[in-house]
Design goal:
InterPro entries: Ac45_acc_su, VAS1/VOA1_TM, VAS1_LD. It is a single-pass membrane protein. Pfam families: Ac45-VOA1_TM (PF20520), VAS1_LD (PF05827). This protein has about 200 residues and is mainly beta. The chain has two domains: about 120 residues, no CATH class; about 45 residues. It is built from one helix and 14 strands; from the N terminus they run βββββββββαβββββ. Strands 1, 2, 3, 4, 5 and 7 form a six-stranded antiparallel beta sheet that branches. A three-stranded mixed beta sheet has the order 8-6-9, with no helix packed on it. A three-stranded antiparallel beta sheet has the order 11-13-12, with no helix packed on it. A hairpin with a 2-residue loop joins β3 and β4. It starts with a strand and ends with a strand. About 10% of the residues are buried. The mean pLDDT is about 75.
């Protein structure tokens, strides 16, 4: 594929050439295309050549990436083809890059295979945080399951309790007078107190 800039003043002689290859892989049982090389031409002479890495997709798909660049901060998918080449003097960056070389229908891109990895740093951090939260939840559930119920045991013991004289005739059979220094008191023999153990 050749990208030409037409009659734009400073870019009139600049051409960006994408060299694509297609291959059949038995494991996936389909054809895949890959961007093999990128060339920069100016006035019909090659100025720079970059080898492309990890730019591939099924032949019926397109390839999409937020940044395709020769710079390290964008993961450097374009690598200068030779140390002696002039490619090192060029910095190439495509933003919102999408390409499809084969099986194009009605001039529209097919479904895109994105360059984002399944295990990007953000996804890995999310998985780690989810694992930590699951461990905390499992520990809390385990503590709840093994929590002992509050069993109450009552132990009642008879003990004499002394009260001042009461004028309740119904309690007469349960009272026995006690003699002391002029005061008359009664003992409730059946009076009990309970201790509660938790």
């Amino acid at each position: 594929l050749s990208l030409k800039f037409g009659d734009i003043d400073n870019l009139k002689g600049l051409v960006i050439r994408f060299l694509l290859t297609t291959s059949y892989y038995q494991l996936s049982v389909q054809n895949w295309f890959s961007l093999h090389r990128l060339q920069l031409l100016y006035n019909h002479s090659i100025q720079a050549t970059f080898n492309a890495t990890r730019i591939y997709a099924p032949a019926s798909y397109s390839y999409h990436c937020e940044h395709v660049s020769s710079l390290q901060r964008y993961d450097a998918l374009l690598i200068p083809s030779s140390a002696n080449d002039l490619s090192k003097l060029w910095e190439v960056t495509f933003i919102d890059f999408q390409i499809q070389g084969f099986n194009i229908q009605e001039g529209h891109f097919a479904y895109a295979k994105d360059c984002a990895s399944f295990f990007s740093p953000a996804i890995l951090m999310g998985l780690v945080m989810s694992l930590i939260l699951l461990l905390v939840l499992a520990y809390a559930l385990q503590m709840l399951i093994h929590l002992k119920s509050l069993d109450r045991h009552y132990e009642c013991k008879a003990s004499p309790a002394y009260f001042p004289q009461m004028k309740d005739n119904d309690m007469g059979d349960e009272k026995e007078p006690l003699r002391s220094n002029g005061n008359e008191s009664y003992e409730l023999r059946n009076q009990q107190f309970c201790k509660i153990y938790i």
